[in-house]
Every structure is written in structure tokens, then in C-alpha cells.
Design brief:
By secondary structure, the chain is of the alpha/beta class. 47% of the residues lie in helices and 16% in strands. The strands form two sheets. Strands 3, 4, 5, 6 and 7 form a five-stranded parallel β-sheet that branches. It has a two-stranded antiparallel sheet with strand order 1-2.
Amino acid sequence: MPVGDDWPSVEDQIARMDEALSIIDRLWKGETITEDGRFYRCKDTKLHTLAERRPPIWISAFGPKAASVAGKWGDGLWTLPDPESTPEVIEAYRSAGGGGEIVFQALFSWAESDDAAMDSVRKWKGAQPQEHFKEDWHEPRKMYEHGEEQMSDAEFAENAIISSDPEEHISRIRELEELGATVIVLQNNSGADPMRAIEVYGSQVLPALRRE
């Protein structure tokens, strides 16, 4: 967003994405584009060197309108898992013609104790409120404080995998698979001991999932 502009409405954000993806799609098809769009102006725009394989585009979407745009232009849908809202998002993506990957981003925190796992990931409450994705929130401290006000530790533990028990991590990842994910991106927010968390996942969590 250009410095000094107002934060666009959700409708404009989606419309901007739709128009931009249209341009990207045509450029990868080898077209030369000259047009004045609603948001973007192109003059003899062309990719003069094309890759042998078109890079796949996974499009982030958290609601059905954005998911429909992802279904129209994208090779996959990237979203956050929520049993209440995610099925509608996936359905909108599929209904719009999307046949690619369903990618879930899952935040996890492992530590030697449950309390340490929660304390080390607490700052990520600032990334949880929906309004932070739709409105002009840009100061990290205020975002964290607002997230702390809006969400209890118990609610946060429903949105993220926060536990000292590898079996809990295994169980929660299986739930994400059942929700419809074909790809799960695991975001390691184990602030207490991130390297040890990777070791635990490598020795216990991932091998158990592969045996399924």
C-alpha cells in the first residue's frame, strides 16, 4: 500500500487481488498487456523471458469471496484452519473451479512444559483477531495488547498447537488433515526452545504421522 493511502475496504482488497491475478495470469501466458484497469495501469507489459514451468500460485483467503478469486486464478488455496469457517472457504474455492492444493498454516509451540509452551508463543495472540486482517492495524504492540484482551489462553490453544506432549501435536495435525488439508505448513513458534522443538518433531511427531 502506498505510504499515506487509507487502508482499503475488504471489497477493494479482494478486487485488487482479482485484477492483479488476472494480469499475472495473462503475463505467464505470454501476452502483452496494455490497459487501464480499476487499480492498475499497464503499458506494453510483457514477460520477455518465461520459465519452462509456470510457478504455482497459492492464494491466501480467509472468507468465501476471496476463496472464489483463488478458485478462479490460483493453483491452490492457502488458509487458516477453523472448523466453523474453513469448510465454507474450501467450498467456495472448489465451486469457483479451484482444483489445486488446500494449504493450511498451523502455528505450533512445543516446550518442556505446557506453561512454557504457552508463555513463549503468547505474543502471537496479536495475529489472531479477524479485524487485524481486515482493518488498519500496523503497530505490533497494540496488536498484541488487543489480541490479549480478545483471547484467553484456552481459546488461543484451540487456534494453535500448544503443548509439551508430542502426542497432542500428532493428534491436532491429524485433525487438520480431516478438515480437508492436502498440505500443512507448520509454523514453529516454539520460542522457549525452537531447535529442540524441531528435534521433537523430527524424532516423534512426523514419523508417527508418516506411519498412518
